[in-house]
Model the fold of this input.
Amino acid sequence: MSLQYSTYLKTINNQITAIFNYAVTYYGLKENPCHKAGGMGQKNADEMLFWTKDEFLKFIDAVKDKPESYAIFMTLYYTGIREGELLALTPADVDLEKQTIRISKSYQRIDGEDRITSPKTPKSNRTVTIPNILCDCLKDYMKRCYDLQPDDRLFPYDKHFLYREMKRGSELAKVQKIRVHDLRHSHAAALIEMNVAPKLLQERLGHERIQTTLDTYGHLYPNAQAEVARKLEAFMTEG
Done:
């Protein structure tokens, strides 16, 4: 199977999955059959772009002039959540004491209306731990929001706003232009560089199957086998 055809199949599979998710939410379908059938095709690895730590730091400094943009992109980078998951967040989902964000829904704009739907897959329902720097950022952002209620959307914007701000920040920072979704890849790449295990990466990103995580990011683990061999040799020769 050619890579182009395989990528096409993956696109079709994503569209069918989204349709069945809509039917589950609004028309009483008990479950999404795509979750049982599994995926088909594969993403084109050549299309995956991500920022290094230095590139992200340049970008985030460039969007500091807009507190909402700063908070949005800090959240995307430090959590790896999807765009729809970000736009569906409410203050009630953020626990600054426990340093967690609960992911339980997704935002879509359908026929000109805002819709809050179920996440992409059952595994997408998850709780993501966040570092102090993001806690401080969100605390400051929420203080700036007038009369913000627990069930209000934390970021009352749409995906077009994200795309415009991503483009603006990239141009100001003079870093390579990537998609908003590539911030999810940037998060994953940072965790892999920190030697985070694939299973933990799967849980954090909300992938239904660990195979999805390995298919998507396995090529970013080039030294994994060599590291296993090194540790095994050290273990067997110690003492």
The chain has two domains: 1-47, 49-210. The two ends are 51 Å apart (CA to CA).
